[in-house]
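dude i think i finally got it to work??
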Amino acid sequence: MVYFLIFLTPLLNLALFEAFVFNPGLFFVSLALTVALYLIAVRIITGKMIISRDFWNFSIFPVLFSSFLAIYSLLVINHFVIHFLFILNFFLNYLYLKNIYRGAKTDFLENISSYGNLLAIFFLFSTIFGLEPFLGWPIWILILCSAVAMIMIIYQILWANGVKADDILVYIFLSSLILAQLCWAIYFLPFNFNTLGLIVTICYYLLIGFVKLSLAGKLSNRSIKLYLVSGIGFLILILLTTKWA
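look at this
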């Protein structure tokens, strides 16, 4: 029963997402049902009570990743890319649910959370930058609305990596604040929403890397240089290959 549910939940998620591609009026229904499906699946698969912290810890990734991907797909014109993202969502969530069976934290959970949330950040902020002209809202309101999501993503990453510290909440809040301020500054760069989303993702990668190492007591000159070199390298690559608006 549980093994069937592990496969069935992302499969139904895929079907719901494909449904709103062909009928956009089903978007909010599909999104709401997807969130409900993952909450139910995590409850059954892990055996954790809904009122427990672990239940919500395990639920953050599939709910946020699927939701942000669905919203981002509204901005994608190429249908091939849309279907590819939906299939990617299916496989990531299938592997995630399979991994959390019995409510255990493993190295794979750490990896899928780390790399999956990089994509989630990209989907989130590409959507914010892409929808801002259509919504007509000030960018600071959209960034403020994303603050809760940023806090949850950073918390889930640290939890999945087994990071424990007395001042972890301070790190989470400050990291979210720094990322929000960076997003505000990046918004004014003359690039399209995908490029802006990539730049934010790289900033997030650097920030969360430093936070994890600092809380784990492993922050060193070598690790700082490694993150900076890789991050700056990706930024240079983006700037050299993207089209300026």
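The chain has two domains: 1-104, 119-245.
im so relieved honestly
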